[in-house]
Amino acid sequence: MGSILDRHDFHPTSLREYDIRGIIDETLGENDAYAIGRGFGTRVRRAGGTSVAVGYDGRHSSPSLEAALVRGLEDAGCEALRIGLGPTPMLYFAVHHLDAGGGVMITGSHNPPNYNGFKMMIGHGPFYGADITGIGTMAAAGDWESGTGSNRTVDVSQAYVDRMRVDVPARGYRIAWDTGNGAAGPIVERLTAVMPGEHHLLFTDVDGDFPNHHPDPTEEKNLEDLRRVVAEKGLDFGLAFDGDGDRIGAIDSTGRIIWGDQLLMILAEDVLRDVPGGTIIADVKASQALYDRVAELGGKPLMWKTGHSLIKAKMKETGAPLAGEMSGHIFFAHRYYGFDDAIYAAVRLIGAVDRSGTSLTELRGAMPAMVNTPELRFPCPESRKFAVIDEVLARLEASGANVNRTDGARVNTPDGWWLLRASNTQDVLVARAEAVSEAALERLVAAINEQLSASGLATLTGH
Hints:
Layout: E1 20-23, H1 30-46, E2 51-56, H2 62-75, E3 79-85, H3 88-97, E4 102-106, E5 115-122, E6 125-126, H4 130-141, E7 150-153, H5 157-165, E8 173-178, H6 185-193, E9 197-202, H7 224-233, E10 237-241, E11 248-252, E12 257-258, H8 260-274, E13 279-283, H9 288-296, E14 300-304, H10 308-318, E15 322-324, E16 330-332, H11 342-356, H12 360-365, E17 371-372, E18 376-379, H13 382-399, E19 402-404, E20 409-413, E21 416-422, E22 428-435, H14 438-454
Parallel strand pairs: 2-3, 2-4, 3-7, 8-9, 8-10, 13-14, 13-15
Antiparallel strand pairs: 1-5, 4-5, 5-6, 10-11, 11-12, 15-16, 17-22, 18-22, 19-20, 20-21, 21-22
Helix pairs in contact: 1-2, 1-4, 8-11
């Protein structure tokens, strides 16, 4: 890069609610990485910190972005603690383990291979919203600290694996693990090598081209390989991970998907044994069956906004031991640090199954049968998406509907519920509906279409 930048303008699409994200060499590049390092390092120093843990995922663009980010941190007067390639939760773990002033993870998560981005935490808390827009404001003004920092390589991978092992149950299971050529692969290899049971590993070699399937376990098509191995070998269940290891997917022995809210039902029962009356947080996309189950178990169900940073902040505020999202982010504050870690969630799921005295397949089979849509996404211009939700809320209020405004509009009716919200990370609106029967679901989808149509948007077809 050569000379030190004295100010910088980011591409307007790259600074998001929960992270910084863009297309390499189009909306995100090395100069951006330097400016993020310089700005974030400035924030850490002004908060009284001196060191920043830095990690990166397996994308081809990650090492060069990491090098530029480190230069920015050094020029802000910070020490960069470089933990190298690994999953995002290992970076979060490193911040706690090394008692760093903050952390930056270079990751494109589950986006296509030509994307990359940055997830951050300051102190032991999330860095999001106004913090991220503030990085842009500081860069535009050149409002940066200057100094001569340093960097050193720190290997936390063994400490991280050792921490996972603390919660591994003594009983072994026969499990398939699919890391989708993402950054979680090497950690899963090391962890399963020291776990009881029989483990079948898929695609654990890190490859930024994702040659086997896209690393997003919420898309059913990405679980086909996992289903095949579980069926062929007659395994107890299968686990899948996204590109940076902070989201989990699971299937039972028959290949049925256990969605994020269903995983939370199983984990909540286990956690509430230890924390009677605890608050369990889930996002607005979660099934009513989850909230009902938490209440039945004596817990306090709390519906909150979608977004890993927002959930983490709410957990701290409420002292919740456990939280989760439909997207597969699972957060344990019970016996852990409160951040989303899919590898740790996998270990805790195995433990929950063990303590239940039954199988994951039986736990899944005992859940109430709900009829629902998957997440329905459809394009909506950035400039319109929040305005559309305001229009929908105004119309619903005028009609006297039963509306929860936690995050967008979640409407309760005798048929069930439907949700319409603006995505914080993409130019889309997200809809979901859950009902007691197919006919009831059709009526809920029709209600969503009615609202979309009233705001001049294309309607949803089928589900």
